[in-house]
Amino acid sequence: MISCMKGKGALAVAVDSFLDFCRIEKGLAPNSISAYARDLAKFLSWADAGKCAGIPDAEGVRAFVDSLYRSGLSARSIARHLTTLRNCYRFLLREGVVAADPTALLPLPRQWQNIPKYLNSEEINRLLGAPDASKPAGLRDRAMLELLYSSGLRVSELCAVQLSDLNLDLGVVRVMGKGRKQRLIPVGRCAATAITQWLSSGRHLVLRGKSSPAAFVTSRGG
């Protein structure tokens, strides 16, 4: 039997409160909240399987972490789960839901430090030249790749760029990043040229009469 603090359904309520806190008060990005929700859903599922109706204490949390190791997850994935649990329990401790943080003494698994992989100049040029610029979708793809290369945006940020975020006269794009922090990113000349070609010669053909605030769209306006 998993060791838990009393309170039927308390863990599910606690998780919902934590996610609301992340969404409303901390203003975390949707991707971050989704990642927390997935990790905590696994925690809830594990607790339900062990007939735990309350909030797992230190013994219960250690048992959950042991189950992650037994499942064969990578050290990186286990470290992410532990970070999620720590953030959740710290919130619950501040709110007075728990009397102590059972994750405080849990060590993170040791991870190998991998050397980042990168493309050389020839590979970059091949990538940027891959889209077929004779087709509307090719103009879009080239504009997206040029903007990524020019600005260093995250892919999620690129997908969220709207027409109103682009100011090609000034050579900048407005981006809403993590924690809903807004910033202006310079756009290089090659990227600005590719975006202009897409907006003037390709976007309306891809949309086929539909409307969308997004700068880069699918044929369905997504």
List its traits.
222 residues, 9 helices, mainly alpha
The residue fraction in helices comes out at 40-55%
Determine the mean pLDDT: 88
Distance from N terminus to C terminus (CA atoms, Å) equals 48 Å
List the secondary-structure elements in sequence, H or E: HHHHHHHEEEHH
**How large, in whole angstroms, is the Cα Rg?**
23 Å
Question: What is the compact description of this entry?
Answer:
By secondary structure, the protein is mostly helical. Helices cover 53% and strands 5% of the residues. The mean pLDDT is 88.
Describe this structure in words.
Helix 1 (10-25) runs antiparallel to helix 2. Helix content is 53%, strand content 5%. The protein has 222 residues and is mostly helical. The relative contact order is 0.10. It is elongated, with a radius of gyration of 23 Å. A hairpin with a 5-residue loop joins strand 2 and strand 3 (182-186). The chain has helices at residues 10-25, 30-49, 58-70, 75-94, 121-128, 136-151, 155-160, 189-201, 203-207, and strands at residues 166-167, 172-176, 182-186. It starts with 9 loop residues before the first helix and ends in a 15-residue tail after the last helix. The mean pLDDT is 88.
